[in-house]
Specification:
The protein is mainly alpha-helical. The protein has a single domain, classed as Helicase, Ruva Protein, domain 3, CATH 1.10.8. About 60% of the residues lie in helices and about 5% in strands. A hairpin with a 3-residue loop joins strand 1 (about 5) and strand 2.
Length: about 120
């Protein structure tokens, strides 16, 4: 998903991806409600060869407050992804990271589960 958060400008995003993600969240809530009503144990019976046919969902109401809530959740998720990527990049580029990789390649890395042969 292409969603970027800039603290000075607020939300900047690719509109189709962002609104598609918001809509998906709203419909996910409807599916969760349906599962709660039907019961997890009976989902298969309701979906496979059901005499009632496939489930029918009314178009959910998308209130401004709910959309803002989901928008902020998407921003937080994107920030978490960026933090993890930054941490991964830091660990890969750290001086010891390269030294450890060299040791691993030479077979001289004394890790928790690796013991070199005498």
């Amino acid at each position: 998903m292409s969603l970027h958060y800039n603290k000075t400008n607020g939300m900047q995003f690719m509109i189709a991806d962002f609104f598609g993600a918001l809509k998906a969240r709203v419909y996910d809530d409807e599916v969760r409600k349906w599962i709660f009503v039907v019961g997890v144990d009976f989902i298969g019976k309701k979906l496979v060869n059901s005499k009632e046919g496939p489930p029918n969902f009314d178009q959910p109401k998308m209130t401004l407050s709910k959309l803002l809530e989901y928008g902020n959740m998407l921003v937080q998720e994107q920030e978490n992804v960026e933090r993890v990527q930054l941490a991964d990049k830091y660990l890969k580029e750290a001086a010891l990271g390269d030294a450890n990789q060299d040791s691993i390649n030479r077979g001289t890395f004394y890790g928790l589960f690796f013991y070199p042969e005498p």
